[in-house]
Structures are given as structure tokens and as C-alpha cells.
Automatic annotation (TrEMBL):
Aldehyde dehydrogenase domain sequence ranges: 29-485
E.C. no: 1.2.1.3
Family per similarity comment: Belongs to the aldehyde dehydrogenase family.
SUBUNIT field: Homotetramer.
Molecular function per GO: aldehyde dehydrogenase (NAD+) activity
Active site (catalytic residues): E261
Keyword annotations of the record: NAD, Oxidoreductase
EC category: oxidoreductase
Protein name: aldehyde dehydrogenase (NAD(+))
CDD domains tied to this protein: ALDH_F7_AASADH
Listed SUPFAM superfamilies: ALDH-like
Length: 507
């Protein structure tokens, strides 16, 4: 057992990251660790007025930051990546403390931040526009990209820092200041990341304006201030579909821009030709990793009847043997649920599927630490059909398994849910593989072959369709969301021909 209290370990880790703010403000917002269910800090909250002041400061920062050459802006992000490398272990520990992830997953999240910083540094010299063919002689047409403005970033508890960096690393090289409103459940990690970023700022020198990166601690009122402010050009919000239904219309009403990364009811299809050993490993991580609390968690599994009696018993065995425990004290693969609300939602879903004929394996609460912490055995539920809570995303380690016989039918079943984030097919049949990736295949933003639904790399744009919100973050050409496009036509001739052959002669 650890000799120090979790609150003391938290304070030491925050200090190692460079946080000097008070963590024990009387009457402040309690920060509860899911590892033990105890409060490890109490933080002062920002008010609506504080949020408005942050937006004003960020807009002043934008006026000067947009004029800094993009490669120079990339240098700041490069320095930030160096500081992240130095603080990887400490930041990873904070992720474990606040989100309950294993040390490997906690540090893996910080590695994602490092990776996207490296990507963004290269991108700072590649913010390319196009030269466009014009029908008018003596003219040149092109498109140019310019900084957009202040970017408000709202993040969820399950990935308390990587999504912020997916946005901020790109936004900063694109010329945009950022304001971060982290989840009320994981604000300490945000403060720690900001402290590490400020070390990079100190090394960067005087080019960086005040207010380039800010963190706002608080509840919905602070987030609403960002969402409703006409001075925030882009809102990038990660969370539930319910949250997206609130944020999206408010930003649209003021003609602002949105990147929405919302819920996902992700599925895998196991075909007759699948490599079953590899499938087993991929499904196990996809369904049980982070205690089922990833937006990319595998929640549904369609298994062909010919291999059902091979893969499902193997999955049951893996589920029964997986280790559940305190991520700070044990090498357990599965940590805690975030809180009682998550546990109650899991229990309710399992009770509902029982009444619908589902056969449950696992799902029991585990005796790990105090009663205020919620550890559960991951659950496999064999379902006669896709019904009830199978259509919904329960943010917990529940995998619904269903049998299929017809490939076209299972594609319909796969797509017949609201979420459209991540998907997988396990097959060595080229026709099945290509059909799954085709226009009539998976309707998700991420469609994988012979890997699980979790574990996306930063090189590809991350996001999904339908109730997942349609947003894209991180790699590929996601940088365009953080800039505004201008089409430019230059007449270097002595004539003024009009497009489409229009004639407008003036005597």
C-alpha cells in the first residue's frame, strides 16, 4: 500500500509539473479521484466575468500572434513538445489520478500530445493554398489561408489532455490563441499541462503575447460563456451527444464554427475467415481498455455463426481473467469507473438487457479500496438481437455480442445506431474487407480492418458522423478548421475581361 495519501501524491505531482496555484481553496470545487473516490484537491472556480476577461485577453493576443510567421509559431509548439517529454511521467500520473487510467494509458495520452506537437511543427511550414486555373487571360487565381481567431476548447474527463493538444497544437501554428475549459472531473491535469506550456513560453521569448493559452476552471456557466461569445471564432467540444445538441445550435445561432466530437456506439464484425487469435486481442483491448470509458470503446460485436462458438468462449475466458485494480498500486489492466453515476448507468443497462433475454457474463462490482470508488468486472452480454440499450452508448465496459449469418444484413445492423465514430471488421476475405470500407459499408468516421476500434494515431483526422457530430481533429487536413480561406484573383493585364463571358461595356 502507498504510504502517502492520494492528496499528498497529487500535490507532489502537480508541483513537479510546475503548478504553483493553491490546490486546497476553502469552499472551492472539489476534485475527486476515481481511484479512491476521495477529494484530492479543492480549486477556486472562475466566474463568468473571468471567462469574459479571458476571451478579451485572447482576442488581444490574436491581433499580434496572427502576424508572427507560421514557422516561428511552430517553434513554440516544438519547445512545448520538449517540455512534454520531460514531464511525461508526471503528467501521465495526473491522468491516472484524475481519470483512473493505468500508467501505460496515462503516459500514452501524453505521448499523443507529443506526437501531435511534432506533426504541428512540420505543418507550420505546410499551410498550403492552391493556385487555380482561371478562364481570364492575364489573371492569376489562388486561395490563401489566414488565422481564424480565438479557439475555445471544451474537453471531457476520459481523455483529460490529449484532445486539448489535438486542437491547441494546430490552432497555435495556425495563428489562433486557445482557451481551455476542462471537465470539472479532471481540472488538475489541465492546470498541470498549462504549467508545462508556460515553461515552453518562457523559453520561446518575447514574441508570444499574454493570453495565448488560458485555462478556465468551472462548471457549465463558464463553458456557456465561451459557446455564446461572438469573440470566440471556433468552439471545439468533446463530450456526449446530449452536450453537442446544446452547444451546436448555440454556436450556429451566432454563425460561429464548431468541431463536435461526441458519442460513439462502436462495433466490430467478426467474419468466418477472421484470424481469431488476433481478433481476441483486438476486441479485448477495444472493449475493456480505460474501463470502457473511451469514445472509441467497442460496445457491439457481431460474430458470424460459424465462428461464434470459438471466439465467444475465448472472450469470456479473457474477461474472467482480466485484472481489475488501483492503477497507482497494481499492474491491473482495468481501473475504476469515473464515479457513481457511471456505475449506476452500467447497472441499469445490465438490468434492462436481462429483461430482454440477454445473458450476462461478468459486470459485478469489485472490492477494490473504499466504497466511494467504483471498480467493476467488464461485462460480456450475449444478446438474441440488437435491441434496448444496445442502441445506446453506456459509458462503461459492456460488450454486447450478437450472432449473424448474412453479410449484407450485418452491415445494416452495424450502421443502425445513432453514433458513427469508430468501427472494425475482422476478415481475410478481400471482398468483405473492401465492401466494409466502401460507400455501402461502415458509415463511421473511422473504419478499420483487423484492428480494434480504439487506438487511433494522430496522423489521421479523428472524428465521426451522425450523432458523433461530424467534427475532425488532429491529423490529415484538420488544420483547415482553424483557419479562414480566401480566394484571390489578381489581374496583371491591361484589360478587364469578365468571367463566364459577361459583357459590360461602358462608353
Amino acid at each position: 500500500m502507498q504510504s502517502k495519501s492520494l492528496a499528498a501524491i497529487t500535490a507532489e505531482t502537480m508541483a513537479a509539473c510546475g503548478v504553483s496555484a493553491a490546490l486546497d481553496v476553502s469552499g472551492g470545487m472539489a476534485v475527486v479521484s476515481p481511484v479512491t473516490g476521495e477529494a484530492v484537491a479543492t480549486l477556486a472556480e472562475h466566474s463568468v466575468a473571468d471567462a469574459e476577461a479571458a476571451v478579451a485577453l485572447a482576442n488581444e493576443a490574436f491581433r499580434s500572434w496572427r502576424m508572427i510567421p507560421a514557422p516561428r509559431r511552430g517553434e513554440l509548439v516544438r519547445l512545448f513538445a520538449e517540455e512534454l517529454r520531460k514531464s511525461k511521467e508526471d503528467l501521465g500520473r495526473m491522468v491516472s489520478i484524475e481519470a483512473g487510467k493505468s500508467p501505460s494509458e496515462g503516459q500514452g495520452e501524453v505521448q499523443e500530445m507529443i506526437d501531435i506537437c511534432d506533426f504541428a511543427v512540420g505543418l507550420s511550414r505546410q499551410l498550403y493554398g492552391l493556385t487555380i486555373a482561371t478562364e481570364r487571360p492575364g489573371h492569376r487565381m489562388m486561395e490563401t489561408w489566414h488565422p481564424l481567431g480565438v479557439v475555445g476548447i471544451i474537453t471531457a474527463f476520459n481523455f483529460p489532455c490529449a484532445p486539448w493538444c489535438w486542437n491547441s497544437a494546430l490552432a497555435l501554428v495556425c495563428g489562433d490563441p486557445v482557451i481551455w475549459k476542462p471537465s470539472e472531473k479532471t481540472p488538475l491535469t489541465a492546470l498541470a499541462v498549462q504549467a508545462v506550456f508556460e515553461r515552453a513560453l518562457a523559453r520561446f521569448g518575447g514574441d508570444a503575447p499574454e493570453g495565448l493559452s488560458q485555462v478556465l476552471i468551472g462548471g457549465p456557466a463558464v463553458g456557456e460563456t465561451l459557446v455564446e461569445s461572438e469573440k470566440v471564432a471556433l468552439i471545439s467540444a468533446t463530450g456526449s451527444t446530449r452536450m453537442g445538441r446544446i452547444v451546436g445550435p448555440k454556436v450556429a445561432a451566432r454563425f460561429g464554427r464548431c468541431i463536435l466530437e461526441l458519442g460513439g456506439n462502436n462495433a466490430g464484425i467478426v467474419c468466418p475467415s477472421a484470424d481469431l487469435d488476433m481478433t481476441l486481442r483486438a476486441v479485448a483491448f477495444g472493449a475493456m481498455g480505460t474501463a470502457g470509458q473511451r469514445c472509441t470503446t467497442m460496445r457491439r460485436l457481431f460474430v458470424h455463426a460459424s465462428v461464434y462458438d470459438q471466439i465467444v468462449p475465448a472472450l469470456k475466458k479473457a474477461y474472467a481473467s482480466v485484472t481489475v485494480g488501483n492503477p497507482l498500486e497494481t499492474p491491473a489492466l482495468v481501473g475504476p469507473l469515473i464515479d457513481k453515476h457511471a456505475y449506476d448507468a452500467m447497472v441499469a443497462a445490465l438490468e434492462e438487457v436481462k429483461e430482454l433475454g440477454g445473458v450476462i457474463h461478468g459486470g459485478e462490482r469489485q472490492d477494490v479500496g473504499p466504497d466511494t470508488a467504483y471498480y467493476v468486472k467488464p461485462a460480456i452480454v450475449e444478446m438474441p438481437e440488437q435491441t434496448g440499450p444496445v442502441f445506446r452508448e453506456t459509458f462503461a465496459p459492456i460488450l454486447y455480442v450478437m450472432k449473424y449469418t448474412d453479410f449484407d444484413d450485418v452491415l445494416e445492423q452495424h450502421n443502425n445506431v445513432g453514433g458513427g465514430l469508430s468501427s472494425s471488421i475482422f476478415t481475410t476475405d478481400l471482398r468483405e474487407m473492401e465492401t466494409f470500407l466502401s460507400a455501402r459499408g461502415s458509415d463511421c468516421g473511422i473504419a478499420n480492418v483487423n484492428i480494434g476500434t480504439s487506438g487511433a494515431e494522430i496522423g489521421g483526422a479523428f472524428g465521426g458522423e451522425k450523432e458523433t457530430g461530424g467534427g475532425r481533429e488532429s491529423g490529415s487536413d484538420a488544420w483547415r478548421a482553424y483557419m479562414r480561406r480566401a480566394t484571390n484573383t489578381i489581374n496583371y493585364s491591361k484589360d478587364l475581361p469578365l468571367a463566364q463571358g459577361v459583357v459590360f461595356d461602358i462608353n
